[in-house]
Write a structure and sequence with these properties.
single chain, globular, six-stranded antiparallel sheet
């Protein structure tokens, strides 16, 4: 069913609406339901973030907030009261609204993994809003204030299913019970940890120097990825072991997924 673009779009919309409600409610300390409605023009966008989803689901989405919605979102993140009407948003408010959108994407990622499987979401601010295959207005009421921002789905596709390795009948009574698999068990693999990522312009990369700080797309408490040959096989939390960094595993891929990671 989810291979149907309409079903995927509906699932994306529902999960992002739920993630938006959860993030806003937690920060505001009150229940703030989010209602997806038929998109209607709400003025020129003051903030636009583009969302790239990779993994089991490949999609590009966008969230765009006009000034009034951006001011309300920034106020919720900063724990402040927002004016009923606003004509402009300052740089601090814009940064706060973008960070709130990033939190929403993090919540949406957890929900979408349950629906589609392992995937990653990257969110970044952009200057221009692209055309969409589907567009919804997320309507929120907070006290006397009502505001909406737009959620767009630009493109979607399901990832091709991965071919898994199915062991044959045991060939001997020693080792793993499968001679083909035994040949692979002594192969050394490169293992790495991924704390997060960020897309940067080439000119910004060239400007990096000693003391520069590169902000990643993850919060401090978010799990760290354990990668084998660039493929995610587990997640966990960073620990110190004998003066060296280590990883305490909190989630492990299934045996079939781990075998599929072998080169």
């Amino acid at each position: 069913m989810r291979e149907n673009p309409k079903d995927i779009a509906a699932e994306l919309t529902r999960n992002f609406a739920e993630a938006t409600s959860a993030a806003l409610s937690q920060l505001a300390g009150e229940e703030l339901p989010v209602e997806p409605r038929t998109a209607a023009s709400s003025g020129e966008a003051a903030i636009i973030v583009e969302i790239e989803i990779t993994g089991a689901l490949r999609a590009v989405c966008a969230m765009a907030a006009p000034v009034q919605a951006a001011v309300q979102l920034a106020a919720i993140l900063m724990g402040e009261a927002a004016p009923t009407k606003a004509d402009a948003i300052d740089a601090e408010g814009r940064d706060a609204a973008v960070k709130l959108f990033q939190q929403i994407c993090g919540g949406a990622a957890e929900r979408l993994r349950k629906a589609f499987g392992e995937l990653d979401i990257h969110c970044r601010p952009v200057e221009q809003l692209r055309g969409a295959m589907l567009s919804k207005s997320f309507w929120i009421r907070r006290g006397a204030a009502e505001f909406t921002f737009e959620f767009r789905i630009l493109q979607t596709e399901m990832a091709e299913p991965e071919t898994t390795f199915t062991p044959s009948a045991p060939a001997s009574s020693t080792g793993s019970g499968n001679s083909n698999l035994d040949l692979l068990l002594d192969i050394e693999l490169g293992v790495s940890l991924r704390f997060g990522s960020r897309q940067m312009l080439l000119k910004d990369v060239l400007d990096l120097c000693s003391g520069s700080v590169v902000e990643l797309d993850r919060q401090v408490r978010d799990p760290v990825d354990l990668l084998v040959d660039g493929r995610l096989i587990a997640q966990g939390e960073v620990v110190i072991v004998g003066g060296n960094y280590g990883l305490r595993i909190t989630r492990v891929a299934t045996p079939g997924e781990r075998i599929a990671c072998l080169p």
